[in-house]
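Board notes (copied after class):
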Amino acid sequence: MLICVTHRLLCPDDFLTRLERIAAQHPYAIVLREKDLSENDYEALARDCLAICKHHGVPLNINTQIDIARRIGCDGIHLPFHLLMQHKDDLHDFARIGVSLHSPEEAAQLTATPATYVQAGHVFPTDCKAGIPPRGLSFLRSVCQATPLPVFGIGGITAARYPAVRETGAAGACIMSGLMTCKNIEDTMHPFL
């Protein structure tokens, strides 16, 4: 299974056209990351992305912006661990609640939350975290063992590395740079679907 995490500034072409092609492949979900945008600009982009995702029947998860997700009628949210813990009693209106975490200890605390999936990493070296050592496959395995929720590894995951990711017990992978920059979206996504 595959979650696409967006980063439109990496795209060599039109972001919404690329998102349409990604959504047409039916990934598990698309997380609209776009941390550099103002609240108004993020909301405008989120509305466009939600329309694309609805057209293809693909879940869109809004990254951290709980109020925006509610305003535009998006039923998916993706939060860092600390925000999930802060808002865990006020997320009943979301069908999908993803959480990014960085330790098995955090994963073990998820049973008392409404989280529906976990994003754990970074697993392999990646340009997005240049100079920061990866946590590795043993870390991913320990997160998978600490929670019954589906876990998606993130960070430097390629088609060649995907079988090793799955062997840890992970449900799938998250890809950002690879999907934002690749020439052939369909071929890039195929091994993960």
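Comment from the instructor: The first helix runs from residue 15 to 23. DSSP finds nine helices and eight strands in the chain.
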